[in-house]
Amino acid sequence: AAEVRRQPALPANDVVTAPAIRSANARPDYDVLVVGAGFAGATLAERLASQAGKRVLLIDRREHVGGNAYDEHDAAGILIHRYGPHIFHTNSDEIVQYLSKFTKWRPYEHRVLAAVRDKLLPIPINRTTINGLYGLDLQDDDQAAAFLAARAERREIRTSEDVVIAAVGQELYETFFRGYTRKQWGLDPSELDKSVTARVPTRTSIDDRYFLDSFQAMPLDGYTRMFENMVDHDLIDVELGVDFRDVANRVTVGHTIFTGPVDEYFDHRFGALPYRCLDFQHETHDMERFQPVAVVNYPSEDTPFTRITEYKQLTGQVHRQTSISYEYSSATGNPYYPIPRADNQAVYKQYEALADALPDVSFVGRLATYKYYNMDQVVGQALATYRRLAPRIGVKAIA
Ligand code: FAD
Predict the structure, then answer these.
(1) Helix (H, G, I), strand (E, B), or coil: what is residue 255?
(2) Distance between Cα 97 and ligand 1 center (Å)
(3) CATH 3.40.50.720 residue window(s) in the chain
(4) What is the CA(67)–ligand 1 centre distance, in A?
Protein backbone atom coordinates (compact mmCIF):
# COMPACT_ATOMS: atom_id res chain seq x y z
CA ALA A 1 0.00 0.00 0.00
CA ALA A 2 1.17 3.47 -0.71
CA GLU A 3 2.62 5.32 2.20
CA VAL A 4 0.27 8.03 3.27
CA ARG A 5 1.63 11.01 5.05
CA ARG A 6 0.47 14.37 6.18
CA GLN A 7 1.83 17.37 4.43
CA PRO A 8 5.29 17.93 5.88
CA ALA A 9 4.59 21.44 7.00
CA LEU A 10 4.22 21.42 10.73
CA PRO A 11 6.06 19.84 13.66
CA ALA A 12 4.72 16.41 14.60
CA ASN A 13 3.35 17.54 17.95
CA ASP A 14 1.44 20.38 16.41
CA VAL A 15 -2.26 20.58 17.14
CA VAL A 16 -3.08 21.84 13.69
CA THR A 17 -4.79 19.44 11.36
CA ALA A 18 -2.83 19.61 8.14
CA PRO A 19 -5.11 20.68 5.33
CA ALA A 20 -5.07 17.53 3.32
CA ILE A 21 -3.43 14.17 3.29
CA ARG A 22 -1.18 13.42 0.40
CA SER A 23 -0.10 10.05 -0.76
CA ALA A 24 3.65 9.97 -1.30
CA ASN A 25 3.52 7.45 -4.13
CA ALA A 26 -0.01 7.19 -5.39
CA ARG A 27 -1.66 9.86 -7.44
CA PRO A 28 -3.65 12.14 -5.13
CA ASP A 29 -7.41 12.36 -5.54
CA TYR A 30 -7.05 15.94 -6.68
CA ASP A 31 -4.09 17.99 -7.82
CA VAL A 32 -5.36 20.97 -5.89
CA LEU A 33 -7.82 21.53 -3.05
CA VAL A 34 -9.19 25.07 -3.06
CA VAL A 35 -10.77 26.09 0.22
CA GLY A 36 -13.29 28.90 -0.23
CA ALA A 37 -15.34 29.72 -3.33
CA GLY A 38 -15.11 33.52 -3.19
CA PHE A 39 -13.16 35.61 -5.68
CA ALA A 40 -9.80 34.24 -4.52
CA GLY A 41 -10.79 30.58 -4.61
CA ALA A 42 -12.94 30.69 -7.73
CA THR A 43 -10.25 32.51 -9.72
CA LEU A 44 -7.57 30.02 -8.73
CA ALA A 45 -9.79 26.99 -9.30
CA GLU A 46 -10.71 28.30 -12.74
CA ARG A 47 -7.12 29.05 -13.77
CA LEU A 48 -5.75 25.80 -12.45
CA ALA A 49 -8.40 23.75 -14.26
CA SER A 50 -8.77 25.64 -17.52
CA GLN A 51 -5.17 26.76 -18.05
CA ALA A 52 -3.12 24.17 -16.24
CA GLY A 53 -5.34 21.12 -16.68
CA LYS A 54 -5.28 20.41 -12.95
CA ARG A 55 -7.96 18.39 -11.19
CA VAL A 56 -9.43 20.72 -8.61
CA LEU A 57 -11.70 20.18 -5.62
CA LEU A 58 -13.28 23.50 -4.67
CA ILE A 59 -15.05 23.55 -1.32
CA ASP A 60 -16.87 26.13 0.76
CA ARG A 61 -18.47 25.78 4.14
CA ARG A 62 -21.28 28.03 3.04
CA GLU A 63 -24.05 26.53 0.94
CA HIS A 64 -23.17 28.68 -2.05
CA VAL A 65 -20.33 29.92 -4.24
CA GLY A 66 -19.40 33.60 -4.45
CA GLY A 67 -18.10 34.21 -0.93
CA ASN A 68 -19.16 37.60 0.35
CA ALA A 69 -20.10 38.75 -3.14
CA TYR A 70 -22.93 36.19 -3.27
CA ASP A 71 -26.25 37.50 -4.57
CA GLU A 72 -29.63 35.79 -4.65
CA HIS A 73 -33.27 36.44 -5.41
CA ASP A 74 -35.27 37.09 -2.26
CA ALA A 75 -38.86 36.01 -1.63
CA ALA A 76 -40.15 38.90 -3.73
CA GLY A 77 -37.90 37.90 -6.63
CA ILE A 78 -35.54 40.86 -6.20
CA LEU A 79 -31.82 40.28 -6.62
CA ILE A 80 -30.11 41.22 -3.35
CA HIS A 81 -26.60 40.91 -1.96
CA ARG A 82 -26.87 38.79 1.16
CA TYR A 83 -23.62 40.09 2.65
CA GLY A 84 -23.98 43.73 1.72
CA PRO A 85 -23.66 45.81 -1.43
CA HIS A 86 -20.84 44.91 -3.81
CA ILE A 87 -19.94 47.28 -6.60
CA PHE A 88 -17.26 46.22 -9.03
CA HIS A 89 -14.67 48.87 -9.88
CA THR A 90 -11.12 48.65 -11.12
CA ASN A 91 -8.40 50.35 -13.11
CA SER A 92 -7.00 47.04 -14.32
CA ASP A 93 -7.75 46.04 -17.92
CA GLU A 94 -6.34 42.59 -17.21
CA ILE A 95 -8.87 41.95 -14.47
CA VAL A 96 -11.79 43.26 -16.52
CA GLN A 97 -10.75 41.05 -19.43
CA TYR A 98 -10.42 38.05 -17.17
CA LEU A 99 -13.83 38.41 -15.50
CA SER A 100 -15.47 39.29 -18.80
CA LYS A 101 -14.98 35.66 -19.84
CA PHE A 102 -17.68 34.82 -17.30
CA THR A 103 -20.09 37.72 -17.36
CA LYS A 104 -21.44 40.60 -19.34
CA TRP A 105 -21.62 43.89 -17.50
CA ARG A 106 -24.15 46.54 -16.66
CA PRO A 107 -22.45 49.97 -16.53
CA TYR A 108 -23.07 51.48 -13.12
CA GLU A 109 -21.52 54.47 -11.35
CA HIS A 110 -21.96 54.36 -7.62
CA ARG A 111 -23.22 57.43 -5.77
CA VAL A 112 -23.67 57.66 -2.02
CA LEU A 113 -25.51 60.23 0.04
CA ALA A 114 -25.04 60.85 3.74
CA ALA A 115 -28.01 61.67 5.97
CA VAL A 116 -26.81 64.60 8.08
CA ARG A 117 -28.78 67.36 9.78
CA ASP A 118 -32.01 66.38 7.99
CA LYS A 119 -30.30 66.60 4.61
CA LEU A 120 -29.00 64.06 2.13
CA LEU A 121 -25.58 65.22 0.94
CA PRO A 122 -22.98 63.61 -1.34
CA ILE A 123 -20.16 61.61 0.19
CA PRO A 124 -17.19 61.80 -0.42
CA ILE A 125 -17.45 65.45 0.55
CA ASN A 126 -17.53 67.64 -2.53
CA ARG A 127 -18.56 71.21 -3.34
CA THR A 128 -22.24 70.27 -3.33
CA THR A 129 -21.81 68.79 0.16
CA ILE A 130 -20.22 71.95 1.50
CA ASN A 131 -22.76 74.23 -0.16
CA GLY A 132 -25.64 72.09 1.09
CA LEU A 133 -24.36 71.80 4.64
CA TYR A 134 -23.50 75.46 5.14
CA GLY A 135 -26.03 77.10 2.80
CA LEU A 136 -23.18 78.44 0.67
CA ASP A 137 -22.83 79.03 -3.03
CA LEU A 138 -19.19 78.20 -3.69
CA GLN A 139 -18.85 78.45 -7.43
CA ASP A 140 -15.62 76.72 -8.33
CA ASP A 141 -12.83 74.43 -7.19
CA ASP A 142 -10.70 77.29 -5.90
CA GLN A 143 -13.42 78.61 -3.63
CA ALA A 144 -14.13 75.14 -2.27
CA ALA A 145 -10.42 74.46 -1.74
CA ALA A 146 -10.06 77.75 0.13
CA PHE A 147 -13.07 76.86 2.29
CA LEU A 148 -11.56 73.50 3.25
CA ALA A 149 -8.07 74.92 3.73
CA ALA A 150 -9.45 77.47 6.19
CA ARG A 151 -10.89 74.63 8.28
CA ALA A 152 -8.10 72.06 7.99
CA GLU A 153 -5.98 71.89 11.13
CA ARG A 154 -2.24 71.38 11.11
CA ARG A 155 -1.35 68.53 13.41
CA GLU A 156 0.88 65.51 13.66
CA ILE A 157 -0.75 62.56 11.83
CA ARG A 158 -0.86 59.46 13.99
CA THR A 159 -4.45 58.26 13.95
CA SER A 160 -7.46 58.33 11.66
CA GLU A 161 -8.82 61.28 13.59
CA ASP A 162 -5.67 63.27 12.79
CA VAL A 163 -5.92 62.40 9.09
CA VAL A 164 -9.47 63.69 8.78
CA ILE A 165 -9.14 66.80 10.93
CA ALA A 166 -5.94 67.73 9.08
CA ALA A 167 -7.85 67.51 5.80
CA VAL A 168 -11.28 68.97 6.55
CA GLY A 169 -11.28 70.33 10.11
CA GLN A 170 -13.16 69.46 13.26
CA GLU A 171 -16.74 70.19 12.20
CA LEU A 172 -16.80 68.12 9.00
CA TYR A 173 -14.94 65.40 10.87
CA GLU A 174 -17.63 65.25 13.53
CA THR A 175 -20.49 65.52 11.04
CA PHE A 176 -19.39 62.88 8.56
CA PHE A 177 -16.65 60.71 10.03
CA ARG A 178 -16.59 60.40 13.81
CA GLY A 179 -19.93 58.72 14.43
CA TYR A 180 -19.75 56.58 11.31
CA THR A 181 -16.29 55.32 12.21
CA ARG A 182 -17.31 54.62 15.81
CA LYS A 183 -20.28 52.59 14.61
CA GLN A 184 -18.33 50.87 11.84
CA TRP A 185 -15.29 49.87 13.89
CA GLY A 186 -16.51 50.02 17.46
CA LEU A 187 -13.52 52.30 18.03
CA ASP A 188 -13.03 56.03 18.08
CA PRO A 189 -11.03 57.30 15.07
CA SER A 190 -8.40 58.40 17.56
CA GLU A 191 -7.83 54.69 18.30
CA LEU A 192 -7.54 53.57 14.67
CA ASP A 193 -4.47 53.47 12.47
CA LYS A 194 -4.05 56.41 10.18
CA SER A 195 -4.17 53.87 7.33
CA VAL A 196 -7.95 53.45 7.78
CA THR A 197 -8.47 56.91 6.36
CA ALA A 198 -4.97 57.38 4.96
CA ARG A 199 -6.37 59.87 2.53
CA VAL A 200 -9.75 61.50 2.90
CA PRO A 201 -11.18 61.61 -0.59
CA THR A 202 -12.43 65.18 -0.50
CA ARG A 203 -13.31 66.89 -3.73
CA THR A 204 -13.61 70.53 -4.59
CA SER A 205 -15.52 69.69 -7.78
CA ILE A 206 -19.14 68.59 -7.97
CA ASP A 207 -18.17 65.08 -9.13
CA ASP A 208 -20.31 62.91 -6.86
CA ARG A 209 -19.18 59.47 -8.03
CA TYR A 210 -18.10 57.31 -5.13
CA PHE A 211 -15.37 55.60 -7.15
CA LEU A 212 -13.23 57.19 -9.85
CA ASP A 213 -11.93 53.95 -11.41
CA SER A 214 -11.88 53.66 -15.19
CA PHE A 215 -14.15 50.60 -15.08
CA GLN A 216 -17.25 50.56 -12.88
CA ALA A 217 -20.00 48.02 -13.47
CA MET A 218 -22.16 45.26 -12.08
CA PRO A 219 -22.21 41.73 -13.49
CA LEU A 220 -25.24 41.78 -15.78
CA ASP A 221 -26.82 38.59 -14.38
CA GLY A 222 -25.37 38.99 -10.90
CA TYR A 223 -22.24 37.81 -9.09
CA THR A 224 -23.48 34.32 -8.34
CA ARG A 225 -24.12 33.59 -12.01
CA MET A 226 -20.62 34.84 -12.81
CA PHE A 227 -19.13 32.53 -10.18
CA GLU A 228 -21.14 29.60 -11.47
CA ASN A 229 -19.68 30.23 -14.91
CA MET A 230 -16.17 30.44 -13.49
CA VAL A 231 -16.30 27.08 -11.76
CA ASP A 232 -18.27 25.28 -14.46
CA HIS A 233 -15.43 23.09 -15.73
CA ASP A 234 -15.03 19.33 -16.12
CA LEU A 235 -11.89 19.36 -13.99
CA ILE A 236 -13.50 21.23 -11.09
CA ASP A 237 -15.59 19.41 -8.50
CA VAL A 238 -17.49 21.75 -6.19
CA GLU A 239 -18.60 20.72 -2.70
CA LEU A 240 -20.65 23.21 -0.71
CA GLY A 241 -21.58 23.21 2.96
CA VAL A 242 -18.28 21.48 3.74
CA ASP A 243 -15.54 22.65 6.07
CA PHE A 244 -11.98 21.97 5.02
CA ARG A 245 -11.22 20.09 8.21
CA ASP A 246 -13.76 17.47 7.16
CA VAL A 247 -12.37 17.23 3.66
CA ALA A 248 -8.81 17.04 4.90
CA ASN A 249 -9.41 13.65 6.41
CA ARG A 250 -10.96 11.99 3.40
CA VAL A 251 -9.27 13.46 0.33
CA THR A 252 -5.67 13.41 -0.84
CA VAL A 253 -4.36 16.43 -2.70
CA GLY A 254 -1.10 17.70 -4.12
CA HIS A 255 -1.47 21.34 -3.16
CA THR A 256 -3.93 23.35 -1.08
CA ILE A 257 -5.10 26.90 -1.71
CA PHE A 258 -6.56 28.25 1.52
CA THR A 259 -8.73 31.37 1.39
CA GLY A 260 -10.28 31.12 4.86
CA PRO A 261 -9.09 32.88 8.04
CA VAL A 262 -5.36 32.31 8.51
CA ASP A 263 -5.63 32.29 12.32
CA GLU A 264 -8.25 29.56 12.14
CA TYR A 265 -5.98 27.46 9.93
CA PHE A 266 -3.36 27.53 12.67
CA ASP A 267 -5.88 26.88 15.44
CA HIS A 268 -5.54 30.45 16.73
CA ARG A 269 -2.26 29.57 18.36
CA PHE A 270 -1.19 33.21 18.58
CA GLY A 271 -4.71 34.30 19.49
CA ALA A 272 -7.72 35.13 17.33
CA LEU A 273 -7.22 37.92 14.81
CA PRO A 274 -9.96 40.47 15.48
CA TYR A 275 -12.53 41.18 12.82
CA ARG A 276 -15.37 43.62 12.61
CA CYS A 277 -18.61 41.78 11.85
CA LEU A 278 -21.76 42.91 10.10
CA ASP A 279 -25.45 42.13 10.38
CA PHE A 280 -27.91 42.83 7.61
CA GLN A 281 -31.60 43.32 8.13
CA HIS A 282 -33.18 42.70 4.74
CA GLU A 283 -36.66 44.07 4.00
CA THR A 284 -38.97 44.35 1.01
CA HIS A 285 -41.23 47.38 0.66
CA ASP A 286 -44.34 47.94 -1.43
CA MET A 287 -42.93 50.85 -3.37
CA GLU A 288 -40.83 51.12 -6.48
CA ARG A 289 -38.11 53.24 -4.96
CA PHE A 290 -37.09 53.65 -1.32
CA GLN A 291 -34.33 56.27 -1.47
CA PRO A 292 -32.71 58.50 -4.10
CA VAL A 293 -29.49 56.49 -4.55
CA ALA A 294 -28.41 52.89 -3.98
CA VAL A 295 -26.65 53.62 -0.69
CA VAL A 296 -27.42 56.19 1.99
CA ASN A 297 -24.94 56.45 4.87
CA TYR A 298 -26.08 57.36 8.39
CA PRO A 299 -23.05 58.90 10.10
CA SER A 300 -24.87 59.95 13.27
CA GLU A 301 -24.69 57.75 16.34
CA ASP A 302 -28.41 58.48 16.85
CA THR A 303 -29.17 55.70 14.34
CA PRO A 304 -27.84 52.24 15.16
CA PHE A 305 -27.19 51.22 11.55
CA THR A 306 -24.42 52.55 9.32
CA ARG A 307 -26.16 52.55 5.95
CA ILE A 308 -29.18 51.49 3.93
CA THR A 309 -28.78 49.84 0.54
CA GLU A 310 -31.49 49.60 -2.09
CA TYR A 311 -30.50 46.75 -4.38
CA LYS A 312 -32.56 47.48 -7.48
CA GLN A 313 -30.56 50.64 -7.93
CA LEU A 314 -27.39 48.58 -8.21
CA THR A 315 -28.76 45.91 -10.47
CA GLY A 316 -31.18 47.92 -12.60
CA GLN A 317 -33.88 45.34 -11.98
CA VAL A 318 -37.40 46.55 -12.72
CA HIS A 319 -39.92 45.44 -10.09
CA ARG A 320 -42.97 47.04 -8.48
CA GLN A 321 -41.52 46.40 -5.02
CA THR A 322 -38.06 47.17 -3.69
CA SER A 323 -35.68 45.40 -1.31
CA ILE A 324 -33.34 47.17 1.04
CA SER A 325 -30.95 46.24 3.81
CA TYR A 326 -30.00 47.99 7.01
CA GLU A 327 -26.37 47.37 7.88
CA TYR A 328 -25.18 47.07 11.47
CA SER A 329 -21.61 46.61 12.64
CA SER A 330 -20.84 44.35 15.55
CA ALA A 331 -18.01 42.64 17.34
CA THR A 332 -19.29 39.09 16.85
CA GLY A 333 -20.47 37.00 13.92
CA ASN A 334 -19.00 36.29 10.50
CA PRO A 335 -15.57 37.88 10.01
CA TYR A 336 -15.83 40.79 7.56
CA TYR A 337 -13.25 43.50 8.10
CA PRO A 338 -9.78 42.96 9.54
CA ILE A 339 -9.32 45.64 12.20
CA PRO A 340 -6.40 47.76 11.08
CA ARG A 341 -4.31 48.32 14.18
CA ALA A 342 -0.60 47.82 14.62
CA ASP A 343 -1.03 45.21 17.36
CA ASN A 344 -3.29 43.09 15.10
CA GLN A 345 -0.77 43.33 12.27
CA ALA A 346 1.94 42.10 14.61
CA VAL A 347 -0.13 38.99 15.40
CA TYR A 348 -0.88 38.49 11.71
CA LYS A 349 2.86 38.63 10.95
CA GLN A 350 3.36 35.65 13.24
CA TYR A 351 0.73 33.69 11.31
CA GLU A 352 2.21 34.86 8.02
CA ALA A 353 5.58 33.42 9.00
CA LEU A 354 3.95 30.03 9.63
CA ALA A 355 2.05 30.26 6.36
CA ASP A 356 5.19 31.11 4.40
CA ALA A 357 6.85 27.99 5.76
CA LEU A 358 4.23 25.69 4.21
CA PRO A 359 5.36 24.86 0.68
CA ASP A 360 2.24 22.89 -0.15
CA VAL A 361 -0.30 25.46 0.95
CA SER A 362 -0.94 28.90 -0.57
CA PHE A 363 -2.81 31.50 1.46
CA VAL A 364 -4.81 33.87 -0.72
CA GLY A 365 -7.61 36.41 -0.28
CA ARG A 366 -8.81 38.79 2.36
CA LEU A 367 -9.18 36.32 5.25
CA ALA A 368 -6.01 34.36 4.58
CA THR A 369 -3.85 37.48 4.30
CA TYR A 370 -5.81 39.49 6.92
CA LYS A 371 -6.24 42.53 4.76
CA TYR A 372 -9.21 44.43 3.40
CA TYR A 373 -9.15 44.02 -0.35
CA ASN A 374 -11.58 45.10 -2.98
CA MET A 375 -12.83 42.39 -5.30
CA ASP A 376 -10.54 43.38 -8.15
CA GLN A 377 -7.54 43.31 -5.84
CA VAL A 378 -8.40 39.78 -4.74
CA VAL A 379 -8.70 38.68 -8.36
CA GLY A 380 -5.34 40.33 -9.04
CA GLN A 381 -3.80 38.58 -6.04
CA ALA A 382 -5.23 35.24 -7.18
CA LEU A 383 -3.95 35.66 -10.75
CA ALA A 384 -0.51 36.55 -9.41
CA THR A 385 -0.58 33.50 -7.14
CA TYR A 386 -1.45 31.33 -10.11
CA ARG A 387 1.53 32.66 -12.07
CA ARG A 388 3.88 31.98 -9.17
CA LEU A 389 2.42 28.61 -8.35
CA ALA A 390 2.07 27.16 -11.82
CA PRO A 391 5.74 26.31 -12.42
CA ARG A 392 5.98 24.73 -8.95
CA ILE A 393 3.13 22.35 -9.57
CA GLY A 394 4.28 21.25 -12.97
CA VAL A 395 2.55 23.66 -15.30
CA LYS A 396 4.70 24.46 -18.31
CA ALA A 397 2.79 26.94 -20.41
CA ILE A 398 1.13 29.69 -18.44
CA ALA A 399 -1.67 31.58 -20.09
P1 FAD B 1 -14.56 35.67 0.64
O2 FAD B 1 -15.48 36.27 -0.34
O3 FAD B 1 -14.82 35.91 2.08
O4 FAD B 1 -14.52 34.11 0.38
C5 FAD B 1 -13.88 33.22 1.30
C6 FAD B 1 -14.72 31.97 1.37
O7 FAD B 1 -14.00 30.97 2.10
C8 FAD B 1 -16.04 32.16 2.08
O9 FAD B 1 -17.12 31.86 1.23
C10 FAD B 1 -15.96 31.22 3.28
O11 FAD B 1 -17.21 30.59 3.57
C12 FAD B 1 -14.94 30.21 2.81
N13 FAD B 1 -14.24 29.55 3.93
C14 FAD B 1 -13.56 30.15 4.92
N15 FAD B 1 -13.06 29.23 5.75
C16 FAD B 1 -13.43 28.02 5.27
C17 FAD B 1 -13.22 26.68 5.71
N18 FAD B 1 -12.51 26.39 6.81
N19 FAD B 1 -13.76 25.69 4.99
C20 FAD B 1 -14.50 25.94 3.86
N21 FAD B 1 -14.72 27.20 3.42
C22 FAD B 1 -14.19 28.22 4.11
N23 FAD B 1 -15.21 44.95 -2.76
C24 FAD B 1 -15.37 45.70 -3.89
O25 FAD B 1 -14.52 45.63 -4.80
N26 FAD B 1 -16.48 46.50 -4.06
C27 FAD B 1 -17.44 46.60 -3.10
O28 FAD B 1 -18.41 47.32 -3.27
C29 FAD B 1 -17.28 45.83 -1.91
N30 FAD B 1 -18.23 45.89 -0.96
C31 FAD B 1 -18.05 45.18 0.18
C32 FAD B 1 -19.04 45.26 1.15
C33 FAD B 1 -18.90 44.57 2.33
C34 FAD B 1 -19.97 44.67 3.36
C35 FAD B 1 -17.74 43.79 2.55
C36 FAD B 1 -17.54 43.07 3.84
C37 FAD B 1 -16.77 43.67 1.57
C38 FAD B 1 -16.91 44.37 0.38
N39 FAD B 1 -15.97 44.27 -0.64
C40 FAD B 1 -16.12 45.01 -1.78
C41 FAD B 1 -14.81 43.37 -0.52
C42 FAD B 1 -15.12 41.98 -1.11
O43 FAD B 1 -16.16 41.40 -0.36
C44 FAD B 1 -13.87 41.11 -1.03
O45 FAD B 1 -12.83 41.70 -1.76
C46 FAD B 1 -14.05 39.70 -1.57
O47 FAD B 1 -15.24 39.11 -1.17
C48 FAD B 1 -12.91 38.86 -1.08
O49 FAD B 1 -12.95 37.58 -1.67
P50 FAD B 1 -12.23 36.37 -0.95
O51 FAD B 1 -12.32 35.22 -1.87
O52 FAD B 1 -10.88 36.78 -0.48
O53 FAD B 1 -13.06 36.14 0.39
Answers:
(1) strand
(2) 21
(3) 4-69+217-270+340-392
(4) 5
